[in-house]
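Quick one:
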Amino acid sequence: MAKTIPATKKNGGEAAKKTRSCAYPLLALPAAVEAAKALCGGLGEGPHSRQSLACGLGYSSFSGAASSKIGSLVHFGMLARSGGMYSITPLAKEAFSYPQEGSLAAIGKAAVKPVLYGKLAARFLDKSLPEKLDAILSADYGITQKAAAMAAQNFIQTLEFAGLIREGKLVFREFGGQAASAPDIARAPEKMNNAAAPPAIKIRLASGIEVSFPEELAYRLSMGEFAQPIKDLDGKAMGGVADI
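Output:
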């Protein structure tokens, strides 16, 4: 569930809750890959300023449209930002060779890099996507009703492009990956620059324990790498073991 912040209704001053929007790209992954490929071919790997990127994308200046497109490339891990400058990432260069076999893992990783997409991937793993996904995006993730339909469409198009949707169901395990160990489950998120914890994906187990994963682990989580350690942890908790 997205975070909520208090708001005030105009009619009567009653307290209400307003859901804070979850970060997501305004492009689907196919368009993002093509945009990053064009930037790399036209400008090189970088680093580049926002103005240079805007021009490389065909805009005369850094506008709202250019900002949205550049932001989408950052969401998918196609661009990395450092000190106000942007560079093409190794992940992007791997994705450029799509649909060659060696690029499929990169495409799969990029598909679940956006915060919203990682949350949805974990939520609907091995499940069929709901028909009213846009309503869920609006109610649970703070996406405005006006934008929710397009956000849902881009999410589905992204996962279909990556081969992660089969007959309407999310499937992830075919990409493989490194096995997770039990300490990965219990490890506390590292503090960021200002001592604020990074956003996390939270899962409540049958025992009542809530396990948190840094969102950069969304892809590995969605592939089921943590399933056995989570099961072991849940079993210990339900058995009364307190050494976790």
